[in-house]
Design goal:
This protein is mainly α. It contains five helices and no strands. The longest helix has 17 residues.
Length: 93
């Protein structure tokens, strides 16, 4: 990691618990994910793992306030194919 960051002239800084604001984008994404799951899980909170792929897909498909593009568009240079990336959860009895 050190060689890569030096070659690309990147200053890599690790966030610490004492300076939790140093990783603001991650903190904001986690808060958004938490809020999305809170709205979509059942009352017993037993299906959060089934809803997690849908919430992460929604975050990755939506535009970022910082970049004005979605992470999907930045990473794969295209908008996601909903049929390819999303499938309905199966109901277990």
């Amino acid at each position: 990691m050190k060689e890569v960051t030096q070659a690309l002239q990147i200053r890599h800084v690790f966030p610490t618990t004492a300076h939790h604001h140093s990783n603001g984008n991650t903190e904001r994404t986690i808060r958004t994910l938490y809020n999305m799951l809170a709205l979509s899980i059942n009352d017993n909170q037993t299906n959060w793992n089934e809803m997690l792929p849908f919430a992460t897909f929604a975050i990755n498909a939506g535009p970022s306030a910082t970049t004005r593009d979605s992470p999907f568009k930045i990473w794969i240079k295209n908008w996601p194919s909903f049929k390819k990336h999303v499938s309905r959860p199966t109901k277990t009895l």
